[in-house]
């Protein structure tokens, strides 16, 4: 019961091992001598492998026949379908299973691997080789000689040599037949305990040697196959004299054991036979039966006299574990004695284990090539270990001798799968010599080793690596095209094509560089200019030739070194500076800016004035030009010299620029009206005048120059009906629209003329009287109307709808003369009184007065005003606005503070100060100089001389008929401390509205008489348009 339980447990464990290892067995039967391409079986169907889930496989299912290198397999298998076919190699059972006992089965075994590794299975296929009747039975010799005593009794039996047939079963020896027995002899067949059929000759008649001593017959042997095969031998029977006793063995069966390592000559056994006869009939002769195998006859020696069996040649249990020795003892008679000696060769541990390597991955020149990307458990070979010894001497273990990324996994008895146990890395180990060791359990144990070579195939699993991931280099500018800059190198841990590296420029690489794809030499193919670009940053690529290729990149930084290849550059080839003649010594004229595209010392520029020039100096670093002289425009209007800029390079470079300093005047003259010369003139405009017709032209002049003398005209007062417009440039007054009856009469226009001077614009105004009527019949009346429009504003317009009659005019003239005479007398009296009472200090002040002419506003001084000098300057008075409360008045009221006086000299002037701000349009913009990206430091130019003078626009003028005005007096003088800033002076436009209140200052005589400053206000209401 315990034995059965142990056997059951062992069987279960073996089945588990086989199942877990993915191993299976399959048996097929095949007849020997089958032709080629005969289908034996289908593994895919027979093992139900079609039921394996079709998961994603690295490759299609494959059946690979695993066999020993050098062997020629008897079958082949279709790798894709698993179908098994015979090959052209002959299947010969007798050769394949030679030495196997007659009744034993003959098997042929192969292993089949099912790939890929995801579904790996190892299948052991056992082919049972069926025997066919392909061999005829044969007698040991073609002539069989036998001796029979003449006194043999009837039915006596004599053994004949048995025939041998390599076939088995029914195909073996089945029958013997005696041919031409002559009725004396017969033949019978008996079966031995071993299953052999032995022929026996039977005596059927009495023999008489004297009558016939020899009988010749034939013996035929047949097998049971289909078709039957047979052979014959000649049987020659000799009739001998009577021999009454036969030899007899002491033991008919003897079994002995002898170790296989017994030396030659060792006694195996001693046979003993006796014979009751005497003399020659009692002499016994020992010999081996013809049924003894040739191997046994070769290994053992039988002493034919003594019957001693000794070892003739070394025994080998593995070759044959036992031997049957049929020994015959004969006294010369026909009936020899028979004894069977069974020799068992006992095992000794004399055989080392054998290692049989059957490759699953076909080797190349004896070496397995395995990709480094091979997954875990990749099957390499089937290792079969055997030991011809028996029992524990034949029990073998197999292992590897050192640590390798491979392992042996048991599948069948004494069979192991060699597979990968970890990832392979070509870069760390390129080749493995796997030493397989097999050791038996004998004492002492014997072992065997075998070497299996595995080469790791390189895969492109390593990208190139730059020796420097960041490459920084410098190159002087102005290099020759084709200059080699550096050699870029990278390494690749792979081998072969996978380690062949090509170098490429990245897409961001500029066209100035080239990279040799084979050597990695970086070249500047163009001339580099640091001033255009100082640094180049781009990527380079290293790509191997693997499939697919791998690449990596590195950054290259090329710095272009400066050379002194650029001369200093002035911002202008020629500089024009405009300075006022009032600029003091050592003031600031202007700034010279110089740039040098080079770097460092090569860009450090020093400025100097060429030739000997003591009039000006220049700061060598900042470029500020200062005068060493005082300017006088009347003596010299401009100065010209050259400035040199030189850098500090080892071989210095320089350049020059021309500098012109222009001395300019200031805007210190106001415009002077030439036409009309005074406020008391008028111009006749016919009512029939067409619109857009020029009815009058205002002309003013300015003693300044340039833009300071450019004038602009505008109507700033009067013209209440908007009947007239003025051209701001030419001064032409144009009729805007057709005159109607309501437009007849005197129209007063306040015209302003202002210059475009900088920094302050100056202006002047004048009254233009336009008389709209068909004709002028009484000019004196018109002048009187003009005068009254200025001195006596009225609430109604002065209209002249029709020409007055001569009698009416005469009366008016007489009245005017009388009134004028009375007025003159009164004025003279008042003046005389004032002079008499004038204080001494007023007299001194009167003497300090400038030359002026006091006149009364009457028609008689018109001639003098009309002939005023052209350089007459008109000073302005302030104009105050006021609204009338008279609801019946159609016009508006305006109050004029009118000091009516003329002076031959200019009355209000503006101080230019020290500000050189008047430049021509093409002169350099100093503000741009300050903002330029000049390598020189920025600096602030401070004024050398502050502006202390303050100029007043309004002065007291003698009473005259000229209206003057000034806007924003507080803004007309500059207190700016920056000589380059422009003073703000703005003027508001003054509008005149009717009625007008004119405040006339008292004449000097009245002020002297009253000892106080007195202003008499004369209210004049004038109807104006």
Automatic annotation (TrEMBL):
Membrane-spanning residues: 813-834
Gene Ontology terms: cellular component: plasma membrane
Domain Cadherin, chain residue ranges per copy: 22-139, 140-249, 250-355, 362-466, 467-570, 571-673, 685-795
Keywords attached to this entry: Calcium, Cell adhesion, Cell membrane, Glycoprotein, Membrane, Repeat, Signal, Transmembrane, Transmembrane helix
Subcellular location as annotated: Cell membrane
Signal sequence bounds: 1-23
SMART domains documented for this protein: CA
UniProt record, GO biological process: homophilic cell adhesion via plasma membrane adhesion molecules
Membrane protein topology class: Single-pass type I membrane protein
InterPro entries: Cadherin-like_dom, Cadherin-like_sf, Cadherin_CS, Cadherin_N, Protocadherin, Protocadherin/Cadherin-CA
GO molecular function: calcium ion binding
Pfam families registered for this protein in UniProt: Cadherin, Cadherin_2, Protocadherin
Role this protein plays: Potential calcium-dependent cell-adhesion protein.
Protein's recorded name: Cadherin domain-containing protein
Organism per entry: Loxodonta africana (African elephant)
């Amino acid at each position: 019961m315990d034995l059965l339980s142990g056997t059951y447990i062992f069987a279960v464990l073996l089945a588990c091992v086989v199942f877990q290892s993915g191993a299976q067995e399959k048996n097929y039967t095949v007849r020997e001598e089958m032709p080629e391409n005969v289908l034996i079986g289908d593994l895919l169907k027979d093992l139900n492998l079609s039921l394996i889930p079709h998961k994603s496989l690295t490759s299609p299912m494959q059946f690979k026949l695993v066999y020993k290198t050098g062997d020629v397999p008897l079958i082949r298998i279709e790798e894709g379908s698993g179908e098994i076919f015979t090959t052209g190699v002959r299947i010969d059972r007798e050769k394949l299973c030679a030495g196997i006992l007659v009744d034993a089965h003959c098997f042929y075994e192969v292993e089949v691997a099912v790939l890929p590794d995801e579904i790996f299975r190892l299948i052991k296929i056992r082919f049972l080789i069926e025997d066919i009747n392909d061999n005829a039975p044969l007698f040991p010799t073609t002539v069989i000689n036998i001796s029979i005593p003449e006194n043999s009794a009837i039915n006596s039996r004599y053994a004949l040599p048995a025939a041998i047939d390599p076939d088995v079963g029914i195909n073996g020896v089945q029958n013997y037949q005696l041919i031409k027995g002559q009725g004396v002899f017969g033949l019978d067949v008996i079966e031995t305990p071993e299953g052999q059929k032995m022929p026996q000759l039977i005596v059927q008649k009495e023999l008489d040697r004297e009558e016939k001593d020899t009988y010749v017959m034939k013996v035929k042997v047949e097998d049971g196959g289909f078709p039957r095969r047979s052979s014959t031998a000649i049987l020659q029977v000799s009739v001998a004299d009577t021999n009454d006793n036969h030899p007899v063995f002491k033991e008919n069966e003897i079994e002995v054991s002898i170790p296989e390592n017994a030396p030659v000559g060792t006694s195996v056994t001693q046979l003993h036979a006796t014979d009751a006869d005497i003399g020659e009939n009692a002499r016994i002769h020992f010999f081996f039966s013809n049924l003894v195998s040739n191997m046994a006859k070769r290994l053992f020696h039988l002493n034919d006299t003594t019957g001693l069996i000794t070892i003739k040649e070394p025994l080998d249990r593995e070759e044959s574990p036992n031997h049957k020795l049929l020994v015959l003892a004969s006294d010369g008679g026909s009936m020899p004695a028979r004894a069977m000696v069974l020799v068992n060769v006992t095992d000794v541990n004399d055989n080392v284990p054998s290692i049989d390597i059957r490759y699953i991955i076909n080797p190349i020149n004896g070496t397995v090539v395995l990709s480094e990307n091979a997954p875990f458990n990749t099957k390499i070979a089937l290792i079969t270990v055997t030991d011809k010894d028996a029992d524990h001497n034949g029990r073998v273990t197999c292992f590897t001798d050192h640590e390798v990324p491979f392992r042996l996994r048991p599948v069948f008895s004494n069979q192991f799968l060699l597979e990968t146990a970890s990832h392979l890395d070509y870069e760390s180990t390129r080749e493995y010599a796997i030493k397989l060791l097999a050791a038996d359990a004998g004492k002492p144990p014997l072992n065997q080793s075998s070497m299996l070579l595995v080469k790791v195939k390189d895969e492109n699993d390593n990208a190139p690596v730059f020796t420097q991931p960041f490459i920084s280099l410098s190159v002087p500018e102005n290099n020759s095209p084709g200059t080699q800059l550096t050699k870029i190198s990278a390494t690749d841990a792979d081998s072969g094509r996978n380690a062949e590296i090509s170098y490429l420029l990245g897409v961001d690489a500029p066209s100035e560089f080239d990279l040799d794809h084979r050597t990695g030499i970086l070249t500047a193919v163009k001339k580099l200019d640091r001033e255009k670009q100082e640094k180049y940053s781009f990527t380079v690529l290293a790509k191997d030739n693997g499939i697919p290729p791998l690449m990596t990149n590195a950054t290259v930084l090329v710095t272009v070194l400066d050379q002194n290849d650029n001369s200093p550059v002035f911002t202008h080839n020629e500089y024009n500076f405009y300075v006022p003649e009032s600029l003091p010594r050592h003031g600031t004229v202007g700034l010279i800016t110089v740039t040098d595209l080079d770097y460092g010392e090569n860009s450090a520029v020093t400025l100097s004035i060429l030739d000997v020039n003591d009039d000006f100096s220049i700061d060598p670093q900042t470029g500020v030009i200062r005068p060493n002289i005082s300017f006088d425009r009347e003596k010299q209007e401009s100065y010209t010299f050259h400035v040199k800029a030189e850098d500090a390079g080892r071989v210095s470079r320089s350049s020059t620029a021309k500098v012109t300093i222009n001395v300019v005047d200031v805007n210190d003259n106001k415009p002077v009206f030439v036409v009309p010369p005074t406020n008391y003139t008028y111009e006749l405009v016919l009512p029939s005048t067409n619109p857009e017709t020029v009815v009058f032209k205002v002309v003013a002049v300015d003693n300044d120059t340039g833009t300071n003398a450019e004038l602009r005209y505008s109507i700033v007062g009067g013209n209440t009906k908007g009947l007239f417009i003025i051209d701001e440039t030419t001064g032409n007054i144009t009729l805007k629209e057709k005159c109607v009856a309501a437009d007849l009469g005197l129209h007063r226009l306040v015209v302003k003329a202002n210059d475009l001077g900088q920094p302050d614009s100056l202006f002047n105004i004048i009254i233009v009287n336009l008389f709209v009527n068909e004709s002028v019949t009484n000019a004196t009346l018109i002048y009187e109307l003009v005068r009254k429009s200025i001195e006596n504003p009225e609430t109604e317009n002065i209209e002249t709808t029709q020409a007055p009659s001569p009698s009416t005019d005469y009366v008016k003239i007489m009245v005017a003369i009388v009134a004028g005479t009375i007025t003159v007398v009164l004025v003279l009296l008042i003046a005389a009184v004032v002079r008499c009472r004038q204080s001494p200090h007023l007299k001194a002040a009167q003497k300090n007065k400038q030359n002026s002419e006091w006149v009364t506003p009457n028609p008689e001084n018109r001639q003098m005003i009309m002939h005023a000098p052209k350089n007459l300057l008109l000073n302005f008075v302030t104009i105050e606005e006021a609204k009338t409360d008279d609801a019946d008045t159609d016009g508006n009221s305006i109050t004029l503070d009118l000091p009516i006086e003329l002076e031959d000299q200019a009355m209000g002037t503006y101080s230019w100060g020290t500000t050189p701000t008047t430049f021509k349009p093409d002169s350099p913009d100093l503000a741009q100089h300050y903002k330029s990206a000049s390598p020189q430091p920025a600096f602030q130019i401070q004024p050398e001389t502050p502006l202390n003078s303050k100029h007043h626009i309004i002065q007291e003028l003698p009473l005259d008929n000229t209206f003057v005005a000034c806007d924003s007096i507080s803004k007309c003088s500059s207190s700016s401390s920056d000589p380059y800033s422009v003073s703000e002076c703005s003027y508001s436009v003054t509008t005149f509205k009717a009625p007008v209140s004119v405040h006339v200052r008292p004449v000097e005589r009245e002020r002297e008489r009253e000892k106080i400053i007195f202003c008499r206000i004369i209210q004049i209401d004038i109807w104006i348009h």
